[in-house]
Design a protein that fits this description.
InterPro entries: DHBP_synth_RibB-like_a/b_dom, Sua5-like_dom, SUA5_domain. By secondary structure, the chain is an alpha/beta fold. The protein contains six helices and ten strands; from the N terminus they run E-H-E-E-H-E-H-H-E-E-H-E-H-E-E-E.
Amino acid sequence: MVTLLNIHPENPQNRMIEKAAQTLRDGGLIAYPTDSCYALGCALDNKAGIERITRIRQLDSKHHFTLMCRDFAQLGQFVIVDNSDFRVIKSMTPGPYTFIMKATKEVPRRMMHAKKHSVGARIPQNVTALALVEAMGEPILSSTLLLPGAEDPLTQADDVVDQIGHDVDVVIESGVPGTVPTSVIDFTGREPEVARVGAGDVSRFE
């Protein structure tokens, strides 16, 4: 039976955040709001969690999972930020952007892109998401909650419970999340490339 946690969107209750974090530590899978719609999340070392996300979203080996980070310093521990990209990426965080970059050895191999050894990373503006990452002390392995065949991601807790409540352990309800996925910028090539146009302004890369 899925647990629905109501968390204050501006002043998250510590006990509720800790309950969600403990679910992650215990190997659970959660659905939580971000500044760019709901995301599925599990702990970094949770192999079964990755498999559950892959099954729910019907993902292939080309999918980039995302590391939800609390700040730029933490992001830099898990992805390689070239000097030429440093200022650009830092100026866009926190915000509705996901950056595709080469992963460091801190990232479990099974969550990297099979050929590129890259991974997505982002710093959200959502207070609840940041509090959860802070409680974990490490990034949360995440993926946008976009179900197979759907044009738009899920944005309401009730809809998440109704559609995938049997597949997750906790659903967090915390204010109104974003309704548009992040813009995705790929920094693994010679020049940054827009991989997906979403909530963030990408005009500087066009």
